Amino acid sequence: MGVEREFGYERVEFEYQNIYDNVTLLGDDTVRQFNEVIVAFSHDVFKKKRGKHCT
User: Fold this and answer.
1) pLDDT in tens, 20-49
2) Residue 24 in 3-state DSSP?
């Protein structure tokens, strides 16, 4: 996983173990909230794409 910032900035990369260690610190409620946000966002994106192709 790498995080690309705006053009001109150095790319930041994270080791797998760093990601794993930090994710395991999250509580169940926080993970559920992330999941809800991601699902809602993806529904909006795919809804827009479907509407775009249908016109």
Assistant:
1) 999 999 999 999 999 999 999 988 888 766
2) coil
For 15, the 3-state DSSP assignment is coil
- Residue 6 DSSP code: S
Q: Taking the model in full, what pTM does it have?
A: 0.50
Looking at the 3D structure of the chain, how many domains does it have?
A: 1
Report residue 46 as tokens: 């795919």
Domain span at residue 6 reads 2-54
4's tokens: 């690309």
